[in-house]
Model the fold of this input.
Amino acid sequence: MNSKTAIRLAAILFVAIAMTATMIEMRRKEQPLQESSVPSLQPTMDPLRSTLRRCQQMGEAAATDADCLATWARSRDRFLGKPTTSELPSNTGGQE
Done:
């Protein structure tokens, strides 16, 4: 075996090892995560969402509906991270 053949064989072996390592790494990244935290954080039935859907279907009439206006306010507060009336801290006024 002359040196030219040995160099070619070594180059082919190097490329084969590099391709194998690349394939293993790509498969490792393709596997989906087993735990997904997003669905567990969402309740199965959100009454606010169903009310918002109803208001959406009402069209322009929803702009004058008191229930829809209150629902939009609750949705906006939840989106902005403001506490709702049930989450507000009780006012002790510093009196004990």
Q: What stands out?
A: The two ends are 97 Å apart (CA to CA).
